[in-house]
Structures are given as C-alpha cells and as structure tokens.
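Table S5 (text form). Sequence records supplied for joint modeling of the two-component complex.
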Amino acid sequence: MRMIIDGRVVTAEKGRTILEVARENGFDIPSLCYHAGVESWGGCRLCLVEISKTSRPDRSELVVSCIYEAEDGLSIKTASPKVIEARRDVLEMLMARAPESAVVRELGYKYGIIETAYVKRENADKCIMCGICTRVCEVMGPAAITLAGRGGERVVTPPYGEAEDCIGCLACAQSCPTGAIEFSETPDERSIWGRTFKRMRCKLCNAPMLPKEQVNFVANKSGLSPLYFEVCDSCRKKQSAKTFARLVS
Amino acid sequence: MPISSQNELQTRRSAAEKSFRSARRRVMICAGTGCVANGALEVYDELLKAITDAGLPVIVELNSHDDKKKPKAHDYLAKSGCHGFCQIGPLLHIMPDDILYCRVKTRDVAEIVAETLTKGAVIEKLLYKDPNSKERRKGRADIPFYAGQTRIALKRCGEIDPESLNAYLADGGFAALEKALFEMTPEKVVKEVEDSGIRGRGGAGFPAGRKWRTCIEAAGDVRYVICNGDEGDPGAFMDRSIMEGDPYAVLEGLMLTAYAVGAKQGYIYVRHEYPLAVQRLTKAIAVLHTEGLLGKNILGSGFDFDIQINRGGGAFVCGESTALMRSIEGKVGEPRAKYVRSVVRGLFDKPTVLNNVETLVCIPGIVKDGGKTFKKIGTKNSSGTKAFSLVGKVKNTGLVEVPMGTSLRKIIFELGGGIIKDRPFKAVQTGGPSGGCLPSSKLDLAVDFDSLTAAGSMMGSGGMIVMDDRTCMVDVARYFIEFLVGESCGKCNPCREGLKQMLAILTRICKGNGVPEDIARIERLCDTLENASLCALGKSAANPVRSTLQYFKDEYEAHINEKRCPGGVCRELIRFDITDKCIGCTACAKQCPTAAITGERKKLHVIDQEKCIRCGSCVTACPSDAIDIT
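The corresponding structure-token record, covering 879 residues in total, follows.
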C-alpha cells in the first residue's frame, strides 16, 4: 500500500505502524516510550502525527504513530503546526517533570525550549513514566516491577516495594531512555531495586557471569540445564570449537 | 420449579399481575441508599408490625402462583428502589391514592396506620411543602419535581420491590425478552434499537444501534456484552438508583443486547462503593438462575446466556471502556491507546458491546413497544429521555428524568423550584468533571447531546450542578481539575503532567498570585489536553476550564488583575463586612471561631479584619443577610 508522508509517497506493508514506516524512510519522529522490543503503549505522545484519510481529506486528527497502523492512501504530516505545538508543550511538561534528564532537555532544545515555564517537580528524579522498564520486565518474564498509583503519584516500583521476583537481569535499567533506574554492577555483584545479586563465575576461566537467580529463571523458561550456564559464553564457544575440530580431524 | 417455556412465563406473570391488582393499596417505602441511611428500614419494620398489630390484612410479596380463589381485600407493603427525591426522605408513597409522605420517622408510623391505612385520611404534616408557595402537596401529581418528569429509565424506580421477580413480572417484566426470543430474529431486535435512535447515556452519546451493528459485523464467533455501572461522576447517581431500584430491567436489557449481537457471556461492572447495587444485582442474577431465566436454553428457546458481576475499585478512569475492559481482564485499569474500536476488538480481544446502565434499562421498552415509539420522545438527533442528578444551589435536589430537548430553565426553575434563598442564578455545570459551566444566557437551551456540546459543555452521564452568584467560577474550574488530577491514571503525559500544571496555575490565580500571561498558558494547556491526550478523560479534561474561560473570563481577570474574587469564595481575596442590615442579634458573634466580631445587642456589629479568618460562619449564621463579601 502507499501513503504520503510530508508530501512524499512511501510504500508500506500491512500491519506496520506509521512510526516504523516513517523512520525507515528517513523521517524524524521523536519518541520516548517506544521500544522496538516491546508492545507499543502510546503514553509519551511525542510521536504524534497529523493524519487525514482519502475518504475525508478535509478532516485531520492527531494520532500516535507508534500504534496507528499503515493504511492505503493515508496522508501523514510529521511536523504540522498542530503536531509541533502539541509536541513542544508535552516536552515542556517533561522538562518540568524531569529537569535533570539530559535526553529530555536535548529534545526540548531541539524544539526551541530553553527553559520550561511550568512548575518543576520537587525532588525530581529522571523518570518520565514511559513504562518501558515495566513492559521489558513483563516480556522478560518475571514482571517484578510495576506502575503503582495514579496520576502524578504514579511510580515504578516492585509490588509493595519488595522486589522478590527480580532476577537481577538489569534489562529495565538498560532500556530506560533517561537512565532513571539506579543500579550498580561489579564483577562480584549486581544491585538493583534494593536487592543485591551475587554473580556466578565461569567454571573454566573465572569470568563474572549472570546472577544465579537469572540463570535459574532462564534455565527454567528455556528448558536448558543449569549446567549449560556454568561456563561463560566464550569458554563454551572454545569448547565447541575444540569438539568440532576433534570431530573433523 | 424453573420457568422453562414461554407458556410458563405467561402463567407466572398473570399470577403476579393478579396478586398486584388485588391489593387495595400499595404502600411503597423507599429503600434506596439515601432513605436507608435516614432510617427507612426501621420505618418499614415498624410499619409492618403496626399494620399486623392493627389487624389489617397485608401482604409483603406478590404471589407466584394463582390459587384461583378470590383474594380478600388487603394492602401490599414493600420496600422500593430510589424515588429520586432523596432530599426529603425517607419517602413513603401510597398508591393508587397517590399520597406521598416525606421525612417519615418511626414515630409517625402509628398515625399513618390509624389515619391513612385505616380511615383513608391524609396526614397533612407529612406532606411535601412547596418551597415557593409554602403549600402542602398531596401526591406526586401535585409536586412539580415529579409532575414535570417523563420517566422511562427510572420508570420502576420507587414503584416496585426491586428484589422481587414477581413484582417485575407484574409490571411487564421479561415481556420484551419473551417477544425477542419467540417472535423476533436478532436482526429484528437490532433494527428496533437502530430505529429508536437511542444514544449511549454513559457520556459519549454514540448511537447504540450502530454500535451493535458494528459488533455483529466484526469477525469472530465469540462476543461479549458489558453493562457499564462504573458511575464515577461526583454527584451523579442515576445508574446506582437504576441498579438498586430496577435490577431485573438492567439484566433484561443486557440479555436482549446479548441476544441481538450473539453473545453468550455478559459482565456487569459495578463500583465497589455501590454495595446495595451489587447486592441487588447479585440476588437478581441468582434468582434468574434458579428460575431458569439465565443459563442454558432460556425459556426453551435455545438461547444460552450468563452474567457475571465484576466490582470496580472506584477509579474514575475505569468508566472509560478500554480501561474497564482491562480491569475485567484482571489487569491494571488504564486506557489502551487504540485505533481499533473495542466493539471490534474489546474484552479479551473479542468484539464487545459496552453500554451504560441507563441505556440498557431502556432496551426492554424499545424492543417491546418498538423503536419508533421511543423515537417520538425527545429531539431529532437525541431521542428518548435523560435522567439528571439535579444538585447544588437549587431548592429541590434529586433525580429527574425529562425528555431530551427540555430547557435548562424548566429543569432548574420548575422541577428544581429555583435557586435556594432566591439568589441570582450564575451557572449550571453539566456533564460531570469533564463537562462545562453554562451561564444564564444559556438557560433556554434545549438540552440534548448536541446542543450541550455546541455550547461548550456536554451531556456526560447527566450530572447537573446549579450555582448561584456566590460561586467563584475560577474556583469551580480549579475544583474539577483537582478531581481529575487525582483520577488521571498517569499513563499519558498531557493528562498526568498537564493537569498538574493546570491545577498549579488555577490555584495561584485563586490565591491572588496569578499573572496576566496565565490565561494564555491555560489556553495552551487546554489545546494540548484536547489534542494530545490518550483517552477521553484527558481529551475532555479541559472542558471545565475552557467553558469557564469562555463565559466567565471577567472573573479570571478580576482575580489576576484586581486581586478580587467576584463570587466571594477565594479566601485570600475576600473580606467580610457587616452592613447596616444588621439587626444586632449577636448570632454571628456567637458563631465566630476567632471572636473577631464585636457589638452590642440590637446594635450594628463590626468585624475585626485582623482577627477574621474568612471562614464564612457569620454569613451562615446571619438571619438578615447583613454580611457583605467583597
């Protein structure tokens, strides 16, 4: 199917979102809650675009491009005045919510906001409530963290503050767009959500590996033996290479 | 014995009807939430005891079976659902004489039995006193609050015993289901609903028939129907009253919807804060199971259907359809960003019809009497009636149901009896927290879905808050935004962050710290909320601000530029003074918590502005309206 993005005709496959199609074609649409690895959520509202359909060319509406799927004949404006205005205002709000976040600040600069006119949040952290961490944790499996509370009181937290299901994989922190999730990692330990995880060591080379909790979780989910995880990836590869060499020689 | 065929249903109904007709008088005590809180159940117990002691023949439940004997003369005493006029409860209504007793207490019972039930005499002092003419009015026909109504959705509320299947049958209950199952195809049922033109009473006003049609046309063979009883607008209680007062009709409406769209499972989503509604619906569902009207092969027609009740935790946003469905699925109740409608992909990703309680309760009537009959009432694009919760500074408060197209003036000044103390009318807020405030120039507006939207407000679920001249419109906007800040789910930025910022600006204006640029900032926030929010809560959240800015911009300007609150509400901006209307009664001085008022008896009193904390106690206490607020 064909769509028009900012005056240019692009082709799109059914089932793909406007955001995916537009980015593949080089259009710059900002977003903060989109992550290709998890289900779209449409919360940050930065990827808003203005669309109109061939059936009603006189009518346009703002939609979030990370969810709206490609339609034949759709006309899309990624930077109309209405889009820019909404995006700017949302960015200005986010700059008041998370003044310390460099990612938000730079996006704001890009849209011409030097300083937010809104009241800044007291004791603000960098969290912008994009929900990527909780969606990642759900996809990962443990669903150890969740969004609790409503409205401005909403926080990312393990249920009742107890991270008992956390496996210390750090995926939440790695995928956070603003680096708002605090964690630490040493060869011996990982710490996150108030818990400390002891890391296993490779039986062969003593290299630091995953925490025991993560190994058990993955082993259980994948059906692989926990023994599989007793050596590190590179030792395992070396072993396989040796076995292979022995077989062919 | 379950009712397993059309024939058996008819036999059962005629027995109930006969039992109903044979009662000499029907004495209905309101057992709605309001009247129960005021002691209605104690009145009922006392009344039953007194009637029995007096040796008067009485029944408390209608017959299920006709014993063929000619019944002896007797009265029928029952607890009914909400009569709608909670302000003067507990209410006791005697039919067919149409005698309405107000504020009935247990101490009145002996007299009611001795005078009214024995001799047929009317007890003057228990009658409703008209707030304007001060005359006593005997029955509903003489009370404008009732006489001005056309009741369809609230038809049985207050008229029948909501816990009695026989009472429902005696009033034509399940005749629509019977007609649908044995005389109509599902297509015919949809057609009737389409013909009726009924639009969703939950807020958005989407045509119910079109919604059903889309559901039928959606792919898949599993479909669901949901009754939305998550009434969340503060002050609105029509859905609660219907669920409490006519639960069987809600269930019948849902059954008809299911039959029409081909669903086998239905859900009723009710707020946890509505325990009586949950209790009555639960009981009604259990009774229908026992009687064979729910479950497999209903009335032998081959139609299978079951209903489950889900209790909501009281989040306002769970009234939004996608949030409600997620909540039923056991997930966090927050809206889903979607461009596929839930009628195509809804609960558990299946086509789902979700209708509001007030919409569903109209369905049996539409199916039974035909959609065209329903369409005759109301306006061209908004057929039927609408129930409103009339509250605020109005003399008669309660639930009123009027045809679409009735003017605000009629609702407020005829049914509502006008403004308390005959103060000037300032505004009426319609549509709940996401609605708007309309000024006196809109009093002649013929209320329907489209006219309210065009005027900058909305129908919403039918809240109607009347405000007098002592209301500050900036404060009203601030109040509603504060409510929405607490109820925003927090998923999308414009609603979560934008409302918080809106509240900050409105609060500072009310405190006298507003700056001229604030108005432009508010307008920009309104645009962003409308254009960029994820769900209807955020998209309509700007309405209270938008409409007050449209009609009462001078009040915003007075707060910002002159540091003055014209409504005399914002404490930082007002002062109280005693004028020469003062009669020196000392009532204000006695009430003043900081002893700021001094003066001799029968002489003009004075307020010490240093000591005054602007609590307004003196205004309430003053019998001669001598306190000036500026």
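Note: Chain B has five domains: 6-140, 172-375, 385-468, 473-561, 575-629.
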